[in-house]
Amino acid sequence: MSGAVDNTSGAAAPFRGNILLGTTLAFGISAFLVVTLRVVFRASRRKIGISDYCIASAMLMSFTHMVFDALCVTKFGYGRHEFDLPASIRTSGTPLMLFWLGQILFKLSILFTKLSLFFIYRDLFAQVDSTIIRITNAANYVTAFIVISYYGAATLLIVDIHTNSSAASYKTP
């Protein structure tokens, strides 16, 4: 929170947390309903597969991230300027920890969402044998490898940066 601008006018800066909260809740609840409908329908047909487990895992992580965002807005001043926050929040490590956990959950939820698509396409083309399908399957596997490598490395980097730096215990002096 270094480099903060002092509020010399005395007027409070506009609160923008309601935008984050509104979009988070609207899209989070919508996604939760769609994923729940998909998984329940496929389970009722006894056709639940690994793509369903991946998307359910992604939804669980995304929902947890949504809760963290809502907590940050309602309890820790996300959406407000730093100079409008009380010193107890500015020096607290909890908002930074929630932000860090949110980054990890976001990366993992995107990873599992994309893996779900990989498994859907893999299963979709499993019964067909032609040259174009073999090429498509190869491209699907290459893409899955790239996705796993990228999001796995990004998640490990976020964990490593947090555990091996002074950012883990950052306090405003």
Automatic annotation (TrEMBL):
Q: Does the keyword Protein biosynthesis apply?
A: no
Q: Which positions fall inside the Rhodopsin domain?
A: 37-156
| UniProt keyword annotation of Transmembrane present | yes
Describe its membrane topology: Multi-pass membrane protein
Gene Ontology cellular-component terms listed:
membrane
Principal subcellular localization: membrane
Q: Which Pfam families does the protein's record reference?
A: Fung_rhodopsin
The text of the family note is: Belongs to the SAT4 family.
**PANTHER family referenced in this protein's UniProt entry, alphabetically:** INTEGRAL MEMBRANE PROTEIN-RELATED (PTHR33048:SF129), PTH11-LIKE INTEGRAL MEMBRANE PROTEIN (AFU_ORTHOLOGUE AFUA_5G11245) (PTHR33048)
Name the chain's protein: Rhodopsin domain-containing protein
